[in-house]
Amino acid sequence: MSIWKQLMFQDANSSIMENMIFFHDHALIVVIMILVFIIYMFIFLLFNKIYFKNLLNHQMIEFIWTVVPVIFLLFLALPSLKLLYLTDESKNPELTVKVIGHQWYWSYEFNDFNNLNFDSFMISKLDNIDQFRLLDVDNRLILPVNKQIRLNINSNDVIHSFTVPSLGIKVDAVPGRINQINLNMSRVGL
């Protein structure tokens, strides 16, 4: 759960979120390298007394300023593609939960357990004095730890967003379309 004045991500509760945090750090390092290079070139050109007035056609410089950005983009694209394929990896689920978004509440259906289903409404501001403001519900979805879980997410009315930041999942619930996501939680959490 996020807390006031928190600067970093929430603690990762799945391997996908750990990989997303690693990719964020990797991308930040690449951006800092580019920034340091640009600042170095700016300072070098600012205090340099050599001028290149006759530099009209130079194949090597054109090759360098084409290849260097491609290399930086590859440093960003390869880990991003790996993470993209990891998030879509589908294994045999031990539990399947159907999540249906409605206006102002969610419905959950466990078809593996004799059609167990329930609705989850947000608790009003007056009732949640000692709970998470505008984030708590009356019936929480409780899922097992270290089990492969499949969530089938759709909506009955409008587009909703099913999000659990500590698991690294955000799926849009679209009317008439079933979106699927697999997750495996590594620790107990709220």
From TrEMBL:
<dbReference type="InterPro" id="IPR045187">
    <property type="entry name" value="CcO_II"/>
</dbReference>
<keyword id="KW-1278">Translocase</keyword>
<feature type="transmembrane region" description="Helical">
    <location>
        <begin position="21"/>
        <end position="43"/>
    </location>
</feature>
<keyword id="KW-0812">Transmembrane</keyword>
<dbReference type="InterPro" id="IPR036257">
    <property type="entry name" value="Cyt_c_oxidase_su2_TM_sf"/>
</dbReference>
<keyword id="KW-0460">Magnesium</keyword>
<dbReference type="Pfam" id="PF02790">
    <property type="entry name" value="COX2_TM"/>
</dbReference>
<feature type="domain" description="Cytochrome oxidase subunit II copper A binding">
    <location>
        <begin position="92"/>
        <end position="190"/>
    </location>
</feature>
<keyword id="KW-0496">Mitochondrion</keyword>
<dbReference type="GO" id="GO:0005743">
    <property type="term" value="C:mitochondrial inner membrane"/>
</dbReference>
<keyword id="KW-0679">Respiratory chain</keyword>
<comment type="function">
    <text>Component of the cytochrome c oxidase, the last enzyme in the mitochondrial electron transport chain which drives oxidative phosphorylation. The respiratory chain contains 3 multisubunit complexes succinate dehydrogenase (complex II, CII), ubiquinol-cytochrome c oxidoreductase (cytochrome b-c1 complex, complex III, CIII) and cytochrome c oxidase (complex IV, CIV), that cooperate to transfer electrons derived from NADH and succinate to molecular oxygen, creating an electrochemical gradient over the inner membrane that drives transmembrane transport and the ATP synthase.</text>
</comment>
<dbReference type="GO" id="GO:0005507">
    <property type="term" value="F:copper ion binding"/>
</dbReference>
<dbReference type="InterPro" id="IPR002429">
    <property type="entry name" value="CcO_II-like_C"/>
</dbReference>
<keyword id="KW-1133">Transmembrane helix</keyword>
<feature type="transmembrane region" description="Helical">
    <location>
        <begin position="63"/>
        <end position="85"/>
    </location>
</feature>
<dbReference type="Pfam" id="PF00116">
    <property type="entry name" value="COX2"/>
</dbReference>
<protein>
    <recommendedName>
        <fullName>Cytochrome c oxidase subunit 2</fullName>
    </recommendedName>
</protein>
<comment type="similarity">
    <text>Belongs to the cytochrome c oxidase subunit 2 family.</text>
</comment>
<keyword id="KW-0186">Copper</keyword>
<feature type="domain" description="Cytochrome oxidase subunit II transmembrane region profile">
    <location>
        <begin position="1"/>
        <end position="91"/>
    </location>
</feature>
<dbReference type="GO" id="GO:0042773">
    <property type="term" value="P:ATP synthesis coupled electron transport"/>
</dbReference>
<dbReference type="InterPro" id="IPR008972">
    <property type="entry name" value="Cupredoxin"/>
</dbReference>
<keyword id="KW-0479">Metal-binding</keyword>
<dbReference type="GO" id="GO:0004129">
    <property type="term" value="F:cytochrome-c oxidase activity"/>
</dbReference>
<dbReference type="InterPro" id="IPR011759">
    <property type="entry name" value="Cyt_c_oxidase_su2_TM_dom"/>
</dbReference>
<keyword id="KW-0813">Transport</keyword>
<keyword id="KW-0249">Electron transport</keyword>
<keyword id="KW-0999">Mitochondrion inner membrane</keyword>
<keyword id="KW-0472">Membrane</keyword>
